[in-house]
Write a structure and sequence with these properties.
- It is a multi-pass membrane protein.
- By secondary structure, the protein is α/β, with parallel strands linked by helices.
- 60% of the residues lie in helices and 6% in strands.
- It folds into 2 domains: 3-267, no CATH class; 281-460, TPP-binding domain (Rossmann fold), CATH 3.40.50.
- It has 16 helices and 6 strands.
- The protein has a 6-stranded parallel sheet with strand order 3-2-1-4-5-6.
- The chain is globular.
């Protein structure tokens, strides 16, 4: 081993160590931004080191270098533009698209390695997992963006089709690994994998999308690790293994937070998708509030707990919420935020949204801590949340039975800001809305919070 190889291996070792450190920093909202920047810098160093290896080996022609640099420039520019321009509400879709890009790239690497060296276990897994991740992530992104219906799409014979595709993948993989398959067999494996991604994700309802995103993220990491084995690149193996392991852990945590097994989630058929519905408030026995009513309750409360949901993100009302919270704090109220693990459309969605508005990290309470303090809370302000505050989860027989929830109904009074009486993703009525201590404020979250803030200011004056 010459000096150049030693330096490259030391760089890869430093990069791998930095990846682990960056992942650790992402465990807390306070250090997550630093961890993201650290990991991004490490990946840039890994790419640069790999480019130096190619130059040193002299195995890349001029035209290939032009294509490589052009592709890197286009990919980096597109990624930067998407990341900077995407709205917070569309961040889950962007994550799904990145998952699709990772899975697709891994599948192409597998196909390329097959053309050069023939079939191997990493090549087969690359094409299989990468293909499923690519198509499944595109369907998930479509569901989140509204291009594909959020409700489960259970077309006739979907289970039989899924089983047939799974059988085709097993047979094609076996032929390739035993040396009896060629390009046609590899193509059949790729088509079956792409079809499986579509067939598996289509029947999954919108209520399970946060878990699906995490699961597909784990698949992407696994596919990248297999690409690393196929190319003999240790840093790809390390990065892919870290993504795969962290995605798998997050998937398990998300499933536990919804009290649903991963198998039940993959089986699909749960949730009808978020809908405003066609009911009017008068069709259910709810107590409606005005801005002045809500302002009086909040202005004279000693402790307020905010429970944010996707409605807050959809209305882009995080800044109005923070303004109201600061106003209440100036009056002497203690304000905290109870964020459910699956609030929003992906893990951490609400945390990032609130951080963007300047909400202090120490005001974000874990669900267990928030629930312990809820009986001593004067007002629970629920903004756009639905299933994660439904008391029906505490009794058997409902679609959300056993799901851990924010115990907003145990506060002395509850104010719910919501556009309508429409269902959440579970497709059932929320018993919190008809509770005697609950007042409903029907409006877009941004408009409602602005009106309540103005009314509180008048009381202060």
């Amino acid at each position: 081993m010459n000096a150049f190889d030693v330096v490259i291996r030391l760089v890869y070792l430093a990069v791998a160590t930095t990846f682990v450190l960056g992942l650790h920093l992402m465990n807390s909202p306070v250090t997550a931004r630093r961890g993201n920047l650290l990991s991004s810098g490490a990946m840039a160093a890994a790419v640069a080191a790999t480019a130096l290896v190619l130059v040193h080996e002299g195995g890349v022609r001029t035209w290939a270098w032009i294509a490589l640099l052009a592709g890197a420039a286009l990919g980096s520019g597109a990624g930067l533009a998407l990341a900077r321009g995407v709205a917070m509400t569309a961040m889950p879709q962007l994550v799904s698209l990145f998952n699709a890009a990772g899975g697709g790239a891994a599948a192409l690497i597998g196909a390329h390695d097959f053309a050069r060296h023939g079939a191997s276990l990493p090549v087969v897994l690359d094409v299989l997992i990468g293909g499923m991740t690519f198509s499944g992530s595109l369907i998930a992104a479509g569901k989140l963006h509204g291009l594909v219906p959020g409700a489960p799409l259970l077309f006739p014979g979907v289970r039989a089709v899924t089983a047939l595709l799974a059988t085709a993948m097993v047979v094609a993989s076996g032929l390739l690994l035993t040396g009896h398959g060629g390009v046609v067999t590899l193509a059949a494996l790729a088509v079956a994998a792409l079809g499986s991604g579509v067939a598996v994700v289509l029947p999954i309802g919108g209520a399970d999308m946060p878990v699906v995103i995490s699961l597909l993220n784990a698949f992407t990491g696994t596919a990248v690790a297999m690409a690393g084995f196929a190319l003999g690149n240790g840093i790809l193996i390390t990065a892919g293994a870290l993504v795969g392991a962290s995605g798998a852990i997050l998937t398990k945590l998300m499933a536990d937070a919804m009290n649903r097994s991963i198998g039940a989630i993959v089986a699909g058929g749960f949730g009808g998708g978020d809908s405003t519905g066609d009911r009017t408030p008068g069709q259910l026995p709810v107590r409606m509030l005005s801005a002045d009513d809500a302002a009086i309750q909040l202005a004279y409360a000693a402790r307020v707990v905010v429970v944010p949901g996707y409605g807050l993100a959809a209305a882009q009302a995080q800044h109005q919420l923070h303004e109201l919270a600061e106003l209440l704090e100036h009056r002497g109220a203690e304000v905290s935020y109870a964020v459910h693990p699956v609030a929003g459309r992906m893990p951490g969605h609400m945390n990032v949204l609130l951080a963007e508005a300047g909400v202090p990290y120490d005001q974000l309470a874990a669900m267990e801590d928030a629930n312990a303090a809820m009986p001593q809370t004067d007002v629970a302000l629920v903004v756009g949340a639905n299933d994660v505050v439904n008391p029906a989860a505490r009794r058997p027989g409902s679609a959300v039975s056993g799901m851990p929830i924010i115990d907003a109904d145990k506060a002395r009074s509850v104010i719910v800001i919501k556009r309508s009486m429409g269902h959440g993703y579970a497709g059932i009525d929320n018993e919190l809305y008809t509770a005697p201590t609950t007042g409903m404020y029907f409006a877009d979250a941004k408009k409602a919070l602005a009106e309540i803030t103005a009314a509180v200011k008048l009381l202060v004056a």
